[in-house]
Design goal:
single chain; alpha/beta; Rossmann fold; 7-stranded mixed beta sheet; 6-stranded parallel beta sheet
C-alpha cells in the first residue's frame, strides 16, 4: 500500500495546493513515485486529460510537480460553480448535471465508492499519495458526512499537516482554533502545523510558536516564507486577479463573474515588462495594449454582466481604434453574433454577442473535453506572425460554434480543426493554453511592442511547461529549507493512527 500524507488548511487559499505540489516534487526528487489526490475540488480552473476527462487544474499542476501524467482519479469529484448556490457536478471526469448546494450536500455520500475506487487506482502505481483537503476541517456546519477533509483522512488513514496563512493575520488563532473544534480522534491525526506566507524575521514568532505547541501538543513543522512561485492558482482568491500594476506592455483580461481557466495567461509572467491585469470596470481598460475575454462557466450570464457594466461599449470602441481583442472559449463565443441555449444548458434563452466575429454559437448538452495539438493557421492583423506556430492545449466547452453572417467569408481560421476564427485584429479560439508555447507568447509580446513602437527588456519566453519545471524545483528547494522534512517523513512512516 502507498504511504499517505494529507495537507489541510485553516481556510481557503491558505496555501494547501502549493504545499502539496512542493511535497510531490520533493518526494519525486527523493526517488519516490508520488501522486496528488483531492477527493472533491470546487474550482472553475479545470484541465482535460489525454482520455478527454475533466479534472481540477490544481491536481494537474501537482501531477506535473510529481513528474507524472495528470489522471482523473487524482480528482474524482469536481464542482464548477454555475450560480451563487449551484454547481455543475463532474464525477470521474464527466458531468452528471447541475445541483443546488443542499441537493449536493444530501447526495455526496453516494460518491464515496467513486472516491475509494479512484484512491485505490492511485495506490496501485505510487509509493506516496499527497492528499489536499478543501477549505477548513473546522467548518462544523459541513462536517456531517465529510468526504474531503477529516472524513477523507479517516477513510484512507492519513496523517495531517495543517497549514495556516499568517499573511492574512491571526495565524495562531487559526491553527489553535481549528484543532479545538476537531474531535479528539481527528486532532490525533494532526502531526504538524505549517505557518505559511511569512514575511520578515521568523525569530519574532518563537514565543508564539512555543505557546502554540504547548497549548495544542502539536509541533510546528515549519515557517514557510511568502513565495513568488509562478504556477497555476486554483480559484478566484488568486492574488493574480487583484494586481493593478501596469507594464510597458499592458494586457487587460476581463474579470468575468464566472471566469474560468484564467491560468491561460500565466505564461506572460515571464516577461518583466508585461503586465496582466484583471479588470471589471470600463475605466480600467484605458491604455490596454491587448484585451482578452477569458473562459466562463456561465457565458450568457457573464455576457449580460459585461454589457451592464459598460464594458461592451468600451471594447467595441477599442476594437474600432485597432486595439487587438482576443477571446478564449466562452470569451470567443461572446465575440460572435449570437449565443443560443435551446436545451437549457445555462438556463435557456439566447443573446446577441458583441458582433465582431462572424460566428454563431449554440450551447449543446454534451461537453467537449479533448486535448489539442495543431498549428496556428493564417491569422490576420497584428498577430499575423503567429502563422504556422505550434499550439498545444485542450478544449472544455459546451458550445458548438460555426461561421455565420455576411462577413463569414472574410474570416480566417485561427487554429486548425475548426477551433478558432479571426478577422482583422479580433481573434477567438476554444483552445485553453493557446499562449503556453514560448514561441507564441514571444510573438504576441513582440507584435504588441512593435505596434506601440517601443523596445522591452525581453521578447523571448520558453514554453510554459519548461518554465514551470524550474518553478517546481524552486518550490521544493524553499520547502526543504523551511520545513522539518524528518518530521514529515516520520508521519509517512506511521502505519496507523
Amino acid at each position: 500500500m502507498s504511504k499517505v500524507i494529507m495537507v489541510q488548511g485553516t481556510m481557503s487559499n491558505a496555501g494547501k495546493s502549493l504545499i502539496a505540489a512542493g511535497l510531490c516534487r520533493i518526494f519525486r526528487q527523493d526517488g519516490f513515485r508520488a501522486a496528488p489526490f483531492k477527493s472533491q475540488n470546487m474550482a472553475l480552473n479545470s484541465y482535460a486529460t489525454k482520455e478527454g476527462l475533466e479534472m481540477g487544474r490544481a491536481q494537474a499542476m501537482q501531477a506535473e510537480a510529481a513528474g507524472i501524467e495528470p489522471m482523473v482519479c487524482m480528482n474524482p469529484i469536481l464542482l464548477k460553480p454555475s450560480s451563487d448556490s449551484g454547481s455543475q457536478v463532474i464525477v470521474n471526469g464527466r458531468s452528471i448535471g447541475d445541483m443546488q448546494a443542499r441537493e449536493y450536500f444530501d447526495y455526496k455520500t453516494k460518491l464515496i465508492p467513486d472516491i475509494q475506487d479512484a484512491f485505490r487506482k492511485l495506490e496501485e502505481d505510487h509509493d506516496i499519495i499527497v492528499i489536499e483537503g478543501a477549505g477548513s476541517p473546522a467548518e462544523i456546519n459541513l462536517k456531517e458526512n465529510d468526504i474531503v477533509n477529516m472524513g477523507l483522512a479517516e477513510m484512507v488513514d492519513a496523517p495531517v499537516l495543517l497549514v495556516g496563512d499568517i499573511d492574512r493575520g491571526g495565524v495562531f488563532a487559526q491553527l489553535l482554533g481549528t484543532v479545538i473544534l476537531l474531535e479528539e480522534s481527528e486532532k490525533a491525526r494532526v502531526g504538524g502545523f505549517i505557518i505559511n506566507k511569512f514575511r520578515g524575521d521568523a525569530s519574532l514568532l518563537d514565543s508564539g510558536i512555543e505557546m502554540l505547541e504547548e497549548k495544542s501538543g502539536i509541533p510546528v513543522a515549519g515557517v514557510v516564507p511568502y513565495m513568488d512561485i509562478k504556477v497555476e492558482d486554483e480559484d478566484s482568491l488568486s492574488e493574480r486577479l487583484s494586481s493593478s500594476a501596469r507594464g510597458l506592455i499592458d494586457i487587460a483580461v476581463i474579470r468575468l463573474p464566472k471566469i474560468s481557466n484564467f491560468t491561460d495567461f500565466d505564461v506572460f509572467e515571464q516577461f518583466p515588462d508585461v503586465s496582466v491585469r484583471y479588470v471589471s470596470d470600463p475605466s480600467q481598460l484605458d491604455g490596454a495594449d491587448l484585451v482578452i475575454l477569458p473562459g466562463s462557466k456561465s457565458t450568457i450570464a457573464d455576457l449580460r454582466w459585461l454589457r451592464e457594466k459598460g464594458l461592451e461599449e468600451e471594447i467595441l470602441k477599442m476594437n474600432a481604434e485597432g486595439t487587438p481583442i482576443f477571446g478564449i472559449c466562452g470569451g470567443y463565443q461572446m465575440l460572435g453574433l449570437d449565443i443560443s441555449d435551446p436545451d437549457g444548458v445555462e438556463g435557456g434563452g439566447s443573446i446577441e454577442g458583441l458582433g465582431i466575429l462572424p460566428v454563431s454559437t449554440v450551447l449543446a448538452g454534451d461537453k467537449r473535453t479533448v486535448q489539442f495539438s495543431g498549428r496556428v493557421c493564417d491569422p490576420s492583423g497584428i498577430f499575423s506572425s503567429l502563422a504556422g506556430l505550434e499550439v498545444k492545449g485542450y478544449e472544455i466547452h459546451m458550445g458548438r460554434t460555426t461561421r455565420y453572417g455576411i462577413d463569414s467569408d472574410a474570416a480566417r481560421d485561427l487554429t486548425s480543426d475548426g477551433t478558432g476564427v479571426c478577422t482583422g485584429n479580433v481573434y477567438g479560439t476554444y483552445i485553453h493554453g493557446f499562449f503556453d508555447k514560448g514561441a507564441i507568447a514571444s510573438s504576441v509580446v513582440e507584435s504588441l511592442a512593435d505596434r506601440k513602437g517601443i523596445q522591452i527588456a525581453s521578447c523571448k519566453a520558453e514554453d510554459h511547461r519548461d518554465f514551470k519545471e524550474k518553478e517546481y524545483d524552486r518550490l521544493a528547494d524553499t520547502l526543504r529549507e523551511h520545513l522539518d522534512m524528518d518530521l514529515i517523513y516520520s508521519m509517512l512512516r506511521e502505519a496507523s493512527i
